[in-house]
Every structure is written in structure tokens, then in C-alpha cells.
Amino acid sequence: MRAIHTIHGGIHPPERKALSQPGKLQPLALPPSLVLPLNQHLGGPARPVINVGESVLGGQVLAEASGVMSVPVHAPTSGTVRAIERRPIAHASGLEDICIELETDGQDQWVAFEGIPHWRDCEPAILAEQVRNAGIAGMGGAGFPTAVKLTPGPQRPIELLLINGTECEPYITADDTLMQRYADQLIEGTTILAHILGADSILIGIEDNKPEAIACVQAAVDQIDAPIEVASFPTKYPSGGEKQVIEILTGMQVPSGGIPADIGIVCLNPGTAVAVQQAIIEGKPLTHRIVTLTGEALSQPCNTLACLGTPIAHLLQAVGWAPEGQQRVIHGGPMMGFAVSNLDAPVTKITNCLLAPTESELPLPEEPQPCIRCGHCAEACPASLLPQQLYWYARAKDQEQLAAHRLFDCIECGACAYVCPSHIPLVQYYRAAKGQIRDSEQERKRSDNSRARFEAREQRLEEEAAAREAKRAARKAAAQQQAESDGVDPVQAAIERAKAKKAQQDAAP
Known about the structure:
Blueprint: E1 33-37, E2 47-48, E3 55-56, E4 61-64, E5 73-74, E6 79-88, E7 96-104, H1 124-133, H2 146-149, E8 160-164, H3 174-181, H4 183-197, E9 201-207, H5 211-222, E10 228-233, H6 242-250, E11 265-268, H7 270-282, E12 288-294, E13 302-307, H8 312-318, E14 330-331, E15 338-339, E16 353-355, H9 376-380, H10 387-396, H11 399-404, H12 415-419, H13 426-485, H14 490-507
Parallel strand pairs: 8-9, 8-11, 9-10, 12-16
Antiparallel strand pairs: 1-7, 2-4, 3-6, 4-5, 6-7, 12-13, 14-15, 14-16
Helix pairs in contact: 3-5, 4-5, 4-7, 10-13
């Protein structure tokens, strides 16, 4: 029996997971058009390879990866490209981004796929490239390109592949449903991932509030001969954080500023594992994902397998959305999600939940009051930080102290703000401070680059001037040597040449 460790802090907010009936998938109608952002993940945006007016098939590449930290975008169904322009996206900033609008034709015709059924005989690099070409990015967090995570390099040998089935945030049941409905594909995808990474062992961690998912995954593991362990552990938020679940299940801590690969672990989401299975076995790209539609403003909360690019409004209306006067729709969960400013924004690869709460169900935040220094925030912080000090330094924009107090170890889980009796939006201060530090770092890099270019230019000019002076000195020395060998005074010879040249100019008509 695996030893389960504890993490510092954490909270137990109301789960409200039964509302969306985990384990069941509700099919919904295809929308008349899909809006596909070119950047649905952490990294650079994809580059369009189709034109407006072009007809495409499901699974066809619409935009190709523009670099290592980028993944392609594929058509989730057949239709016609109607626009490539800026559209609203689901982002905390509320800004727009370049998107491809695909008008669906209802035929749902697809390109032919070619998988790699004998993947055990393939080199890991070939399989990782197949994952990259399938457009797979992490489906449980920021959307880190999966192929990059699968190639940590020889300096980081991977011993353990950890599948994080925790899904600790309230309301969200997308991973729970996936583990119940696609357990066999999950296990096969996990073994493929372990083969690519060269991992010695596989561990699947699931919180104990998902007994059906645990039973389904364990049954799938029992059917194959592979070193896979399924571990359950007590429910607490935010146990699903990457560093937190690693500490809970292994007792090891990821170093500050480091990544799990530094201690020989790669952590991936169950949805990512299923997407990898489909990409390798079937050759199918990532075009759909399970989304939890929940909240008391919906008459039929459920989980659905949605096309990427489906407008949020279309999904909510399909499940009986009855908006109130000041209705909020939250992308993600109530702890780490953000309010969507435009419901025309689409579902992307990282959309795991759309929450439409009533005002009584999830009241608006109260007006913040002065900090009373109670220390509850420090007790709740799962990263063992000092949120109160971070708050003061963030307000003061003291970047040196923020770095000293490990601001970037904050996972923005919101546990500190949840327990704050003064209702201070602590996470907002931390996010703003991180953004300011990143901007300062970019400005410093630009300044360093400008200074390096200036110094390189000055050095080049000095070298060119020295080279010219050396050439002049060499010519002068050569002329003097020649004159001495001819028995002529070099100064007098130069005077005579100047006189001759002037006389020639005066004689010219």
C-alpha cells in the first residue's frame, strides 16, 4: 500500500460535483459555426495554412505549429472557412485574438487518418512528433505543449509517469467523467506515454471522492500486464496542483523554480493521455474535449464532448441556461476560473468547465477591508508561502522582496483569498505583481540587448579604424622603404609628385 503524505495548508470548499452528473455524457447539437483561436495553449500561436472560402474536412490542419512551443490547429468537423480575423476569446484579459471561423456543413466528413498501431517498435522521438502533429497540449492546466513535456532531454531521466486524476476544484467533473467513460483508452495512452518517456513506473492518482472513476481505472489496469499503480488519497483543495499531488503521492518536493522532471517525474492529465492514445493508435488529432456545464442557472447541467471552437453561448443555451440580471459565466471553476466577458468566445483545449451560478449560489465578492494580520492565509497556503507579506510587497511593487518571498511559487489556487476574513482579492495582487515582474524582465532583456548591440558596434568601429590606420602605416612604410632603396628622399619625392599632379591639372583645358 502506497504511503500517502500530507501537504501544508489546503481548504475544503463545498464540492457541488454531483450537480453535473459525473460519468454521463450528454450529446449536444453541432453549432452553425466554430471559432478556433490560433493560440489555445501556452506558447506561440499557430500559423494559418488555409484561405477564406476554402472547404475543409474534419481533422484537416487549419494552422501549423510556428515553433517548438506551438502546436497545430485542426478542423473539428467539415465546413467552409468564413474568416480569419480577431475575435473574442475566453481569457482573463477580455482581449481578442486571431481566430479561424469555420462554418459547419452538417456532413461531418473527415480526412483519412493513419495511426501507429505497433508503437512499441517505434522510436520515442517519432511518437513524440506524432503527438505534436496531433495538436495536443495539456488539457488540465495552462495547456503546455505535450510533445515538449515528453522530451525533457538526456540530462533529466524520467523514472515515474504520474497521471493526475485529482480534479480537486469544486463543480468540475470533466476528468471524473473521462476516467469512467474512457478508462481503457486512458490506460493504453498512459503506457504509450511511459514508452515515450522511458519511465520505469506509472502512477495514477485520484482523490477518494471519485469512487466510480477509481473502480473503472483499476478494472482497466487489471486487464493488462503493466507496472501501473492506482492510488487514492483524501480530498482536499488544491491537491490537484502539480507540485502538490507529487508531494502527496511520493513525498518528494519539486525544488523552488524547478519542474517535476528535475526530480525524475512527469505529470500529465487523464485527458491528455486519452488524446495521446487517439493520436498514436488512430492518428486522430485533438479536436474535441469533455466540458463540464454546471451551475444552478442551468436547468440541465451535464458533461458533454464538445467541438473545440464551439461558442460558449451555444453550449449554455443547449442545457437550459436561464440568465439572471447580473449573470456571470465562469471559465473554469470557482477558485481558479475567471468571468467570461463575451459569450461568443469559444471552447478551447484548456476549457474543462463552464460555470453559470446564480447570485445566491455564488455571491459576488464583498468589498475588501483592511488586513487584520490574522494569519489564516498562511495556514491555508499549500506552497508554504507568506501571503500577507506577498500582499504588502505586491502593493508596494517591491520586486526584490517579492522574489525573496518566492512569489512565483504561488500556484494562484485562491485558498488564501477563500479564508481571508477581510475579503482581500489576494490572488489578483499576485497575478498583477507577476505580470509587472515579467514586464520588467522583458524590459531588462531589451535594455541588455540594446547595450550589447551598441558595445558591439563601438568595438567594430574601433577595429575598422585600427585596421585602416594599420593599412596607412603599412603603405607609408613600404613607400619609405622603396624610396630609400632607390636613393631618393621620400619627402622630396612626395613634393615632386604633388607638383607634377598640380601642373597636369593646370595644363588641362
